[in-house]
Amino acid sequence: MDSASEQNRRLLMELLERDGNGNCVDCGVTEPKWASSTLGVFVCHSCSGLHRNISQISRVKSVSMDPWEADEVKFIASAGNNAAVAKYEQKIPPFYYRPTNTDCMLLREQWIRAKYERKEFMFVDRQEPYSAGYREGFLWKRGRDNGQFLNRKFILSEREGSLKYFNKQDAREPKAVMKIQTLNASFQPTKIGHSHGLHITYLKDNSTRNIFVYHEDGKEMVDWFNAMRAARFHYLQVAYPGAPDTVLVPKLTRNYLKEGYMEKTGPRHTEGFKKRWFTMDDRRLMYFKDPMDAYARGEVFIGSKENSYTVLAGLPPATQGYHWHFGITIVTPERRFLLVCETEAEQLSWIAALQKVINRPMMPQEYAVEAHFKHKP
Question: Residue 4 phi/psi, 5° resolution?
């Protein structure tokens, strides 16, 4: 590499030390190694691949490996991550989901396209698909009994406080009405088997109902997701008057704390252990025969240590009938739940997830959830 290129590379390395440039402008990862010569920003390796999908707008190169022209370095010096954030993120609605490096590629790609390609956060009118308070369209929904994905009409209405879907296009009555009050959504591409797969849950008679959907168009699916977050945001503004956005935004949607297979036995601890799929959704520990079941076989409320909830490694000495070897005992005021993991790593991971919830004091509204909670033994 000639001396001019070496000098340009050194200048780029110096620019990385500037305030704001030490993290990927799109996902926040530290020490980004790539830069966009046309946007004037530093990005991580993973986000650089997504920038290549908008190559007409962003041309990315390695900071240390690729040759750089003096005018490219000069432009980046005049721009930088802080300036790009001020420009491209100036009007982000508080409810809009900002993905991190741990989120699925769909969310991250659409975030990058929304910022630089569609300029949604520079022009408020371009946010209409998820900000209007009403959204109607078709999604592929998994059938509860046969497992087939069928095209279903969905309507999200903030005014009615619900997300509805219809089994037939001309149906007057919805097949299901999901109240925004208990609605949650998280992207689960691996579980659903589609890169745009969204897992929707809501409470029906105090039990969690699972709905699995996708749309072939990634933008459509992310717009649905953010429309649901917008509806939840406006509902919570009424439910918690005066609460700041910093309190409301974490309540909009939540990812599961942990999921995976464990073995469990019944309440008498004499039944054989059965393999079940477990999902930790905040204070609800649910178990399913199959990860894609519509309803859980049972749900366990996980309270706080102040209320006599604990988690222990291992099983009572006389326990029999399990196939795996790494036990967990969950102690609640009513009973003990005995679970077994396949590996020690899974056991430690589940204990950490459960302990995190148990260590957190219960909120006033969570006592009401505990009081009305139902679990199937």
Answer: -65, -45
